[in-house]
Write a structure and sequence with these properties.
This protein is of the alpha/beta class and 364 residues long. Helix content is 43%, strand content 8%.
């Protein structure tokens, strides 16, 4: 994905022209990384799993993909993009609401231009988790892999605009992390690989240790404002209701309680890191209660269906199981909280993003 190439110029006049062009480009780049007058971020960077993934899994060998219909049905142009929803996802909405851009591109997209990089990209990978074992189960990018890609990104930006401007860009941008759902739903509660060796308190401690190390590494690479999204009420997503909710498909409260326990440890961890890291502005973002509010009082938000996804039966379909041959797709996804059996609709994501932005508002 090189974007700067050496050019051999044959004459002094050509050299003068190239210098002028280079000056214009550099001036443009400086403007691109300056905070706007209303104090918004110059760029947004996303890490984590399918909640924020805008298409990175399209470019890796994995079964965890959504780059086919009906995914993307309500996206601009009606095309699937690798987003695990019928339209845009929170990483897009955050970037839009901060005035950065309408969609946040996937870093692995080979068509990215320099300006795309300067205003932020997404490193998240659907199916990933804090636990290094979780992404291995679905052959997706681990948090370590995502950090490596960010290091590659930083090197490219350093080459383009210099170390000082890169440091300014990163320190004034918003970094957002959403991950952990797959650790509980796909790993701990669906396989014996971890549950045979860890009880829930011990496993959440394992996840917190990885979270702490990741946030400190991201800080060391130049990030300063980092929003960390909590785990949602995982036991209430349609797939978990189907697997563990009994004949009535109720919320699986054991899984919800595990999410609550993790969140109760994540918040003080973030407080501790803010005290230890001198320039850190880490933000704990509660998504558990906002999503639970949608599920418990759907009429308040104009939703009609809370326990099934729009795709197929809505009870098990997700990823490859939600495809163009799925017999029934609902006509109006805006009436559903969930698009498939695991991921919210664009409408639900927009509401949840509003809750996210309220919690980071004082920083931008």
């Amino acid at each position: 994905m090189a974007f700067l190439s050496p050019i051999i110029l044959p004459s002094s006049s050509s050299v003068r022209v190239s210098v002028i062009i280079l000056f214009i480009l550099l001036s443009h780049n400086v403007a691109a990384i300056t905070l706007s007058k209303n104090g918004t971020a110059p760029a947004v960077f996303a890490f984590g799993d399918s909640i924020l993934d805008t298409g990175n899994n399209d470019y890796i060998v994995s079964m965890s993909k959504s780059n086919f219909p009906p995914y993307g049905r309500d996206f601009m142009g009606g095309m699937p993009t690798g987003r695990f929803s019928n339209g845009r996802v929170p990483s897009d909405f955050v970037a839009e609401e901060l005035g950065v851009k309408k969609v946040l591109p996937a870093y692995l997209d080979p068509n990215l231009q320099l300006q795309d990089l300067l205003t932020g990209v997404c490193f998240a990978s659907g199916g990933s988790g804090y636990d290094p074992l979780t992404p291995k189960l679905q052959s997706v990018l681990s948090l370590s892999d995502q950090l490596d890609l960010f290091k590659e990104y930083k090197s490219k930006i350093n080459t383009a605009i210099g170390n000082e401007r890169t440091a300014t860009l990163l320190s004034e941008s918003l970094f957002i992390l959403s991950i952990g759902t797959n650790d509980l739903a796909i790993n701990y509660f669906s396989t014996p690989l971890r549950s045979a060796h860890y009880d829930i308190p011990a496993y959440t401690d394992l996840l917190l240790e990885v979270a702490s190390n990741f946030l400190q590494e991201l800080y060391a690479l130049g990030a300063r404002v980092i929003g960390v999204i909590s785990m949602p009420p995982i036991g209430c997503v349609p797939a978990q209701r189907t697997l563990d909710g009994g004949i009535e498909r109720a919320c699986y409260e054991t899984e919800n309680q595990a999410a609550v326990l993790f969140n109760s440890k994540l918040s003080p961890l973030i407080d501790s890191l803010n005290k230890r890291l001198p320039e850190a502005q880490l933000i704990y973002i509660d998504i558990y209660n906002p999503l639970l509010s949608l599920i418990q009082d759907p009429a308040q938000y104009a939703f009609e269906v809370v326990d099934k996804g729009c795709c197929g039966t809505g009870t098990v379909e997700s990823g490859p199981l939600c495809n163009k041959d799925t017999p029934v797709i609902c006509n109006d996804a805006s009436k559903y909280i969930f698009w498939d059996s695991f991921h919210p609709t664009e409408t639900a994501y927009r509401i949840l993003t509003s809750a996210i932005l309220k919690q980071i508002d004082k920083f931008f």
